[in-house]
Design brief:
TAT_signal, signal, 11 helices, 352 residues, Rossmann fold, Substrate-binding domain-containing protein, 12 strands, Peripla_BP_I
């Protein structure tokens, strides 16, 4: 669901090569003892001190209303990270699912002249213009998750990997089916909202990974990201397929309804994989039930966005990178949580 672009670094790389070549020539022809030094272009000057207090900055924040466990966790993660820094003033606006209200809220942050703005839009297309207005006013926008179509509307995008999420689920499913010796599996997929690019990316990643094992999805249906629809869709699929070998549910919030339907039907012949990394899904995995894994699309990205906003506002780069500025886009890996590693991930889980 995202587009990535990076400015050309041809001149920087050429200049770095010239510096390196000059350094090599001096080492070969000079009479001075050799020194273990690297060209300045390869070292950077960030060190490891980015967490130390620096210039005081105000970070604005806007997100949709918390009517979904994942969205609620977005705001909580942002608030928690902001509290870690004595040099950050966190300025959130009222969360809303109304496009016009979110536009007005962002305009109020522009008027307040915040130093940076973390923005998870209800709709990237419809919030694109106000995000561009912030950028034009000199306020760097950290675009969270739902990408703006105009790259001039954000300084940095940060979010999860929807295609990678499907790939992770597909590899877990394929490996488990191979381990069980299943040769012609019935694989069921419960999507979020089928028309969304993010859902299509997840489904494509899942299908592509399954193909490497010689498997295909037998049936799929979308459940609108709600508990109620998840329950209804799962019930229908369970009735339509008397035997299932594997089920992938895209979203752990709607998965509450999916699991309820499975338990009500008393079905235990298959394993299930979830999506997003909720705390209740992790508890189910730990209990050893039908849910064996979930693949992450973690709301911790909001906490990372606050940290990135702080660095950009303070004109810092990322300490572990050579480059002097924060990257233009950051895509988080989708990790697979199983019974073997669930305790490590539990602190990052969100309540559905």
């Amino acid at each position: 669901m995202r587009d990535n672009s990076r400015p050309s670094r041809r001149n920087l790389l050429f200049g770095g090569a010239a510096v390196a070549a000059g350094g090599l020539a001096a080492a070969c022809t000079g009479n001075d003892p050799e020194e273990d030094t690297a060209p300045a272009a390869q070292v950077g000057n960030n060190g490891g001190d980015n967490d130390k207090p620096g210039q005081k900055v105000t970070v604005g924040f806007s997100a949709p209303a918390a009517d979904h466990g994942w969205i609620a966790a977005i705001t909580k993660n942002a608030e928690a990270q902001a509290k870690r820094y004595s040099d950050v003033t966190f300025k959130p606006v009222e969360p809303t699912n109304d496009i016009n209200q979110q536009i007005s809220a962002v305009e109020s942050l522009i008027a307040a002249k915040v130093n940076a703005l973390v923005l998870l839009p209800n709709d990237g297309e419809q919030l694109n213009q106000v995000a561009r207005k912030a950028m034009d006013a000199g306020i760097p926008v950290i675009n969270l998750d739902r990408v703006f179509p105009d790259k001039l509307s954000y300084r940095t995008w940060i979010g999860g990997d929807n295609y990678g999420m499907g790939v992770a689920a597909g590899h877990f499913t394929g490996r488990r089916l191979k381990e069980k010796g299943v040769t012609n599996p019935v694989i069921v997929e419960i999507q979020g909202i089928a028309t969304l690019p993010l859902t299509q990316d997840r489904s494509k990643g899942f299908a592509d990974a399954l193909k490497t094992y010689g498997f295909n999805v037998t049936a799929k249906q979308d459940a609108k990201f709600t508990v109620e629809t998840g329950n209804q869709v799962a019930s229908n699929l369970l009735q339509a397929h008397k035997k299932i070998d594997a089920l992938w549910n895209h979203d752990d919030d709607q998965g509450v309804g999916v699991l309820a339907a499975i338990k009500q039907a008393g079905r235990k012949e298959f394993f299930m994989v979830g999506g997003a990394g909720s705390a209740n899904a992790m508890r189910e995995i730990k209990s050893g039930g039908v849910l064996e894994a979930t693949v992450t699309y973690s709301p911790t990205m909001a906490g990372s966005a606050i940290r990135v906003a702080r660095l950009i506002a303070q004109a810092k780069g990322m300490a572990d990178l050579v480059e002097q500025q924060v990257p233009q886009s950051i895509t988080l890996a989708s990790e697979t949580i199983t019974r073997q590693n669930v305790d490590k991930y539990m602190p990052l889980g969100f309540e559905s």
